[in-house]
Amino acid sequence: MNLLLVGINHRTAPVEVRERMNIQESRLAAAVSDLAHREGILEGMIMSTCNRVELVTNARADVEATPIVRAFLADYHHCDLAPFEPHFYWLKQLDAVRHLFRVASSLDSMILGEPQVLGQVKEAYATARRAGALDGALGEIVSHALAVARRVRRETAIGSSAVSVSYAAVELAKKIFGSLHGKTIFVIGAGKMSELAAKHLLRSGASAIFVSNRTYERAQELAQAFHGTAVHFEELFENINQADIVISSTGAPHFVITKERAQKLLAARRNRPIFFVDIAVPRDVEPSVNELDNAFVYDIDDLEQVVEANRHEREREAARAEKIIEEEMSRLGRRLATKELAPTIAAIEGHLNQIRESELERYSGRLSSLTPDQRQAVEALTRGIQNKILRGPLLELKGVADQPEHGNIVRLIRRIFGVED
Hints:
Layout (H helix, E strand, L loop, with lengths): L2 E7 L5 H7 L6 H9 L4 E8 L3 E8 L6 H12 L11 E4 H12 L11 H15 L6 H19 L9 H13 L6 E5 L3 H12 L4 E6 L2 H10 L3 E4 L3 H4 L5 E4 L10 H10 L5 E5 L16 E5 H63 L9 H28 L6 H11 L5
Parallel strand pairs: 5-6, 5-8, 6-7, 8-9, 9-10
Antiparallel strand pairs: 1-3, 1-4, 2-3
Helix pairs in contact: 4-6, 4-12, 5-6, 6-12, 7-8, 7-12, 12-13
């Protein structure tokens, strides 16, 4: 196994560099096939998203993969890599494995614990498999990385709490309503954060959306994106009583929803609960609305506090995830090292067996008078001696299978027994 991982991500490179190094999804299969079929490369996988571009290869033991991967990147992007080199990281062997485990487990993501990255690794793995670029030790390692990520999800709560304002709005809405299925959203102001909050709420089960904006064309644009209904700003209070969840971000210099307006709204709703997500600065919803029964108001500071508390919780869970990764690193290391030892063990056993059979053949004349039972006893005796000679060295080999020095010990034992590398 001769692993190399090279990459850039949101921490090491600005967006313009990530864009320049990006490999389009439609060209990914051809790219990974090209990489894996370069001289000396046995396997390859490429992951390319908006936040990272990573290439991982398994090369022949006698090959230095760095110049091969560097040449691939220069060829693919038709550029001199020198200006981009400071943004790249180059990881080998166990460091590459640990990085794969951390990426799949969302410990290296822009948002700690985000669930999307596991799907991205799965897709990269599937693409490489379909291209015939991942059918050996590297394929086994990536498969193990996916299993590790699933274990992290199962045994920790790293992805269970919201760490963005828009997700926090969803989390709070669920606490108020229990389920968001069938709930109606009303968006006042069509800014980016309102759009994100609406998107997350709809994904969580909300069934309908209304959008109102001072610029009606922008309201129509956003409503169309969500298959919703645009409402003229002047007709806002004629329609808002249909909403269970109101997301407001207008930039108005005064309160858009006053306590008096909210009272009329609750009366029209027959006091059914209503949830205001006020992400405007200055605020759109008068704070005293929160004093009304069945009215729940959360402003940007409230949401940020939820996010901060959840972020600390995810960091605690991330520490548990790191321990799981170290356990799985040891487990995988032992398994791979044992597999790598198999040819050595077979070669030594074969060599000693050949010596044993040659010696029996050399003394066959003297043994010709033995009965079949006696010949069988001699055969068992010589095999027993062979196995006892092998027992100590083989136990030593297996005992250091996951240790850094196991390669040197393997070479020494091969030399002792006269077995060629």
